[in-house]
Specification:
This protein is an alpha+beta fold. The chain has 1 helix and 8 strands, in the order H-E-E-E-E-E-E-E-E. The longest helix is centred in the first third of the chain and has 29 residues, at about 1-30. InterPro entries: DUF2147.
Amino acid sequence: MHKLLINKLLMPLLMTAAAGSALLAPAAFAQAPNSAVGLWKNIDDHSGKPKALIRITEANGVLSGKIEKLLRDPSEDQNPKCVKCEGDLKDQPILGMTIITGMQKDGSEYNGGKILDPDNGKVYKSKMTLQENGQKLDVRGYIGVPMLGRTQTWLRQE
């Protein structure tokens, strides 16, 4: 009898809580991420083809990005080295390489960072802007001023 009374009282509360959670869950997923932190697929701005998956992380308000996976044709070298890089990165594997450093939130953009292009070994100033409710990230590498550069659009993977 005692068990039946508890079930009668608790069951409506549990059902209400479950229904409320079910209603709130889609809203949480529908909200756009307001951070560039996550896994991104970069799309080559010349060929239009995906090149790599880059994981952007944050430590003390500073973003960095590391190549997590290369998206290469099976006939290509699957573990290429950065032969055109200079310094400590010279001839190091591109897979696992940190290519974004020093990026910080500045209003609706990320600025103050640098990005390495492993294809040519050059390091550029960089800025990033989230687009389409955080599902796309415009990544601009430039020399001097942002007008003198190029932009890739990266697609959020998670």
